[in-house]
Amino acid sequence: MRVKYRTTFLNDLKSLRDKRMRTRIGSAIERVERAASLDEVPGVKRLHASGPYYRLRIGDYRLGFYVVGDVVTFVHALPRRDIYRHFP
């Protein structure tokens, strides 16, 4: 799958101080890039039954993204307590 990043996602990563979490997020993004479909990526859950919005769970963090065709666009990378206030 192809991956794109919104500015909000990149800003969330810049503000993240935990280097181990950054590494885990990078590994998760690589898994998404290698996958033929989201069913192959562990920790992915659809947020709305009729919408293209998903979240990827990584420890206490969630990556919010949407899918159009074979393009995955990451929107936010936030702690669990904050992600659902900002995404979708």
Question: Under the CATH scheme, which class?
Answer: Alpha Beta
- Which whole number gives the mean pLDDT? 95
Q: How many structurally independent domains?
A: 1
For the largest beta-sheet, the strand count, sense and barrel status come to: 5 strands, mixed
State the helix count.
Answer: 3
> How is the largest sheet built, in terms of strand order?
1-5-4-3-2
Please state roughly what percent of the residues sit in beta strands, choosing from under 5%, 5-15%, 15-25%, 25-35%, 35-45% or over 45%: 25-35%
* Number of beta strands: 5
**Spatial extent as radius of gyration:** 12 Å
Order of helices and strands: EHHEEEEH
**Straight-line N-to-C gap:** 21 Å
Detail the poorly predicted runs.
none
Could you estimate the helical fraction of the residues in percent?
A: 25-40%
CATH architecture: 2-Layer Sandwich
The CATH homologous superfamily: RelE-like
CATH topology title: YaeB-like fold
Overall 3D shape: globular
Main structural class: alpha+beta
